[in-house]
Amino acid sequence: AVGGTVMFTTTLSPSEKPFSSVNWSFNVSTTIIIFVINAENIIGPEYEGRITFFPSTASLELRSLTLDDTGEYGVNAVHDGTLLNGRTTLVIYEKVSNVLVTSSSTDLVEFSGSVSLSCSASGPSLSFLWLNGSSEVTASDRVQLTDGDSSLTIVNVTHFDQRPFRCRVSNPVSTVTSDPVNLSISYGPENINLILSPSQGYFAVGSDISLTCSVGSRPPAQFKWFLNGDQLLDTGSELRLMNVQMSNSGNYSCQASNNKTLRSQTSEPSAITVLEKISDPSVKPSPNLPVEGISVSLTCEAIGSAFKRNWMKDGSDLTPTDNMILSDNNRVLTFDSVNRKDNGEYFCNISNPVNSEGAKYIMIVNYGPENVQIKGPNKVNIKGTLKLTCSAESTPTARFTWFFNGTEILTNSAEYVREEVELSDSGNYTCQAWNNITERTSSSVVHGLTVTGICKSSGCAAGCIAGIVIACCVIVAAAVGGGCYIYKKK
């Protein structure tokens, strides 16, 4: 390069014997330096102060090069009586300078604009290379390189073309890169996306919801918001819904527009459903009490938006039997003919996507009375104590009425007790059971009792003695009569 330094080296190696003489010349006729051993060097006037000679190898350094130094350089040397020579050519270039990129436009719209970039520079033997960011630009359907690659044309620009463009200019002695040229390419809106936070689609009344609309756009997009297709007053990329009510339910969408590209894009709708939380759950039975054999229903109710009802019995999922029917989306559990096997704890869980609540009801099936029984002695000694107990299968517990030989003697007691019975207490005791809820009365059960004439203690009253005497006379008469009959028969 102009102003640079060149070193002409030879293929000769230093030796103990020095060169006898060396002659460097330019374009054959111009002397650069003449070296003769043990004599003063002769240097051409235009090379004074610009050269350094190395006698050991006959090499030469030339400094402060100018364009006039372009040409052929030769050397003749005598060494140990032998003449040696060599030739080479040197070309001097101006360095590349004044590299400048100009653009036909820097404000463009994607897909509808084209741009031409031109690179200029000073210097000989120039070559041009275009860079987009750090990548080399190559020709394609959209990219054209002309004028020895000094001109770059991009057709139908995209926003990927907006990275800085540079022109790199080179010649054999230098390389210079231009300052960047930035293209401003308006594009979009594109890749619109509606983000819901929190991300679920169901929300409880009173919740706070944020919707964010993201989109690629230059310049920044303008936004509109819609609910079920109707435009809202809100603008900006974020829509905040505070303390939402059920009226806020619906399909939300955002629309982005670009006032430079005159394009717009609308997001896919995002569904928001606001639900009232479930509260005050209850399981209400039908007005009639559950009596075995009749129809009974349990109704699962709650305040709020109910989506699902699940029934359980005694802690396990309810499996309906033949006498059960679930209706109205599991709201009503009906027993066509309730029976005592249906006794137990019924639990109804009501849920929706925001919460769940449950309530229980303990079913007690009323039935009976049935299987009435009387327990007590069939014989009691005179003056002894009589205790009879009546039982029956019944819910609630049955009430009892006692009869003696058809006459009512006691009511509302499971036990009949009589102290110091008389012979007149012998007879039929009847127990009848009844249920005040089922309003059913059982069939009567009869228990026979005989009071015997043997005293319970050593003392005996006058009546007791009279009874014994009568009984003895009856026995003697029977014996005599029986003996007479046997005698006559013989």
What would you say this structure looks like, in words?
The structure is a single chain. By secondary structure, the protein is mainly beta. The chain has one helix and 43 strands. The protein starts with 5 loop residues before the first strand and ends with a helix.
Give the structure's gist in a few sentences:
The protein has 1 helix and 43 strands.
Descriptors:
single chain; 490 residues; mainly beta; Immunoglobulin-like; 1 helix; 43 strands; rod-shaped
Strand content: over 45%
CATH superfamily of the largest domain: Immunoglobulins
Number of domains: 5
The overall average pLDDT, rounded, is 90
Decide which structural class fits the backbone. Answer: mainly beta
The total count of strands amounts to: 43
Distance between the termini: 180 Å
Low-confidence stretches: 456-490
Helix count, DSSP H or I runs of 4 or more residues: 1
What CATH first level of the largest domain would be assigned? Answer: Mainly Beta
Roughly how many Å is the radius of gyration?
63 Å
Can you summarize the main beta sheet? 6 strands, mixed
